[in-house]
Amino acid sequence: MEKLNLSLFKQTTPKQVIFNLMLWLTLVCMALLFAPAGVMAELNLAPFVTQYAQLLGLGLILGSAYLLMGVVNYFLDEAIDYLKTKRAIETIEEKIQLLDPTERALLREFFLQGETILSLPENETAVRGLLECKILECLGNQKHYAIQGSTADYKISMLARRYLNRQVLRLPAGEPSQAQMQLLIQARPHFIHTAMPTRKHAA
Fold first, then answer.
1. Is 150 helix (H, G, I), strand (E, B) or coil?
2. How far, in Å, are 65, 125, 134, 167 from residue 171 at the CA level?
3. Is residue 148 a contact partner of residue 121, using CB atoms and an 8 Å limit?
4. Element (DSSP H or E) covering residue 120
5. pLDDT tens-digit readout, 80-98
6. Are residues 152 and 139 in contact, defined by beta-carbon separation less than 8 angstroms?
């Protein structure tokens, strides 16, 4: 039991502690200031409230202001996240209409190789362009090589996945024929052959 209590205490952040203190301060001050007179007399708290009414009022104001500020900040953060996501979706939709052959071929690699994560050269124009447009996400794991430069692990962003269908990627419907497969292989980006081996992850 002691170990469990200690682990719970370690998981509590200073921000959570302050929030809990302010919440209790507000509730206690509100209860003392606005409780019915009969209840306060029965609990013998009326003299205490009368003596410290100004401090209790100040505590109520401070606690309420802190909690209100927290609520406002929460809704502001939610609004900012919503606007960022909306803007990212608009950027993705615009970019999907303007994919060049190399970018389209690069995105096909995820489907042709059946991978959710590929190791790609960081300095390639197609990689940087798709990254800036929020279609690709960099997962880190940078590695540096003398000949081909640095590579990192990338995946297709969750926002972009719903836009990347067979029609957008110019993939044949159903199982590709031998001739279609040869065309897809010939259209692969040149840097795919020199990039580091892919890392397999479950979809």
1. strand
2. 57, 22, 22, 6
3. yes
4. strand 118-121
5. 999 999 999 999 999 998 8
6. yes
